[in-house]
Give the backbone structure.
Amino acid sequence: MRRLLFAVFLCASCVPFAAHAAAVGVEHEGVRPQETSVQSTELAEAREQSARASKLFGERKLDEAEAAAKRSVTLYEKAAGADHLALVTPLTTLAGVNVLKHKDDAAEPLYKRALAIYEKRGQAETGNAATIIDELGFLRFRKGDHEAAAQLFERSLAIREKLYGVDHPNLFKSLFNLANIYTVRRRIEKADPLYERGIAILEKLPPHQNPSAVRELRNYACISISNKRPEAFRRAMDLATRLENPELAAANERREKEFKEKGAELDGEGVLKGHVVNKPQPVYPESAKSARISGTVIVAVVVDETGRVTHAEALCGHPTLAKASVEAARRARFAPTLLSGQPVKVTGTITYDFVLNY
């Protein structure tokens, strides 16, 4: 037996802790040693192979990128030594390839070696070094070593604060990374101030498309709704909308202002009362019940001018539950949303809580 709880939030366009696997992608020459003609040829090929590996990695041609990065590393080691700064790029490219191939055990020593080169060369407190530290943090997180991950993200944040100041836009990613770790460790008292700092930084930015920020905000929205914090959920989703589609965000603000001016009554999550016409319950998958899987799924929906759901996509939640949630969301119906008396398209989210009765 089970029961399903669900809430609905509509805005004018609100459409995760995700694995980060990007190479640093900065070519470092460093101080060249006295070169023979053979060394010069090898270094030239090493640079060429490094650039080729980065390009292939960006195209997700992983086998070819791996071969080029390995060749570059070999050539740099032979011609310039094992701690040449230029090694950082092929090493991090090679590490990124291993991450995408789900070979974290192979990726971690490569990132550590790249970081050690920075440390030896006095570049341990640079933006590139902070990026490598982030990569190591993600790897530790996926290993379940949350304490080590937190220490790495704390180090990365400290570097960026020193470089840019405490409220620079470059800090929001580090703030969310560390906050996510604290959330997993159930240290909400430490996570909340970091989320608040990150959101405050993003709220000061002019409206523009920012996919990275949108991902972090949606992840925080999922955390907030799971913790029964609808106000934090709405704030994160509204901000995600502004950074994803500024025009629709402005339309949403005008719509809510118009509702308030008319004295319209909203429910706890900002939905006009009576707006929801039909909220079908998803079928709890038998495979999920057998596996004792429960939890929250948040589905983003697009609602057309007639109130029909034209698109539904799971933002967060267990994959086993997501399909049933999306199917239910597609069957939902709403009264048309009016702006200045005219029906308009809106997007928003429907939240489903799957609860097992033991």
Remarks:
- The longest strand covers residues 346-356.
